[in-house]
Amino acid sequence: MAAVCVFCASSRTLDQRWLDLATETGAELARRGHTVVSGGGCVGMMGAVVDGARAAGGRTVGVIPQALVDLEVADLASDELLVTDSMASRKTLMIDRSDAFLALPGGLGTLDELFEVWTTATLALHAKPMVLIDADGFYRPLLDWLTTLTDQHFLKPAGRNLLTVVATVPEALKALESHLP
Ligand SMILES: C/C(=C\CNc1ncnc2c1ncn2[C@@H]1O[C@H](COP(=O)(O)O)[C@@H](O)[C@H]1O)CO
């Protein structure tokens, strides 16, 4: 059992399929006994992940900066809700409190969080597993561009390979669990 940090969209105007993906992710993590660590908001896919986890009997930990408590609707139903004084300290605390990271489709915030954990892993500042769910090819253009960066020697294959890319939630859980100590 691990604390798995889920990065995903906060947008309130998404297709239902993305919300369903987030609900399935939270529920599957909970069913397998993992704690969900999240950005501590109830909006968009972030809210669907924690709702899915709790509906399946799981434990959730939310980490939210004071400035976003109203904007992202702080998840008061969390088993633990940690309120930070800045965006940077939120990210640090989410990383510290987690054993592994799972990224779903999202916007700039999700990309920022994913690249923070990925770049710090390339610097060997942590060795926690990172999995990206490329559902419906959402991340394909980004992944193709990262392949170009690797081909042109801007990115080392070893760094690229620190991120495991899968297409579905069951594959993500399998990949995460195979990398956990
Ligand atoms: C100020 C700092 C970083 C700025 N960027 C962000 N860092 C961390 N988390 C962020 C950032 N911007 C938005 N977020 C959060 O990501 C979640 C998903 O957002 P999305 O845009 O819908 O994908 C959401 O909770 C945002 O608050 C210093 O490090």
Automatic annotation (TrEMBL):
**E.C. number(s) listed in UniProt:** 3.2.2.n1
Alphabetic keyword roster: Cytokinin biosynthesis, Hydrolase
- List the GO cellular component terms: cytosol
GO MF term list: cytokinin riboside 5'-monophosphate phosphoribohydrolase activity
- Which GO terms are recorded in the biological process aspect for this UniProt protein? cytokinin biosynthetic process
Give the domain of life. Bacteria
Catalytic activity annotated for this protein? 9-ribosyl-trans-zeatin 5'-phosphate + H2O = trans-zeatin + D-ribose 5-phosphate; N(6)-(dimethylallyl)adenosine 5'-phosphate + H2O = N(6)-dimethylallyladenine + D-ribose 5-phosphate
Q: Pfam families of this UniProt entry?
A: Lysine_decarbox (PF03641)
Specify the enzyme's EC class, one word. Answer: hydrolase
Give the UniProt family note.
Belongs to the LOG family.
The record's section on NCBIfam families has:
Rossman fold protein, TIGR00730 family
Q: What is this protein called?
A: Cytokinin riboside 5'-monophosphate phosphoribohydrolase
**Could you tell me which species this protein originates from?**
Micromonospora lupini str. Lupac 08
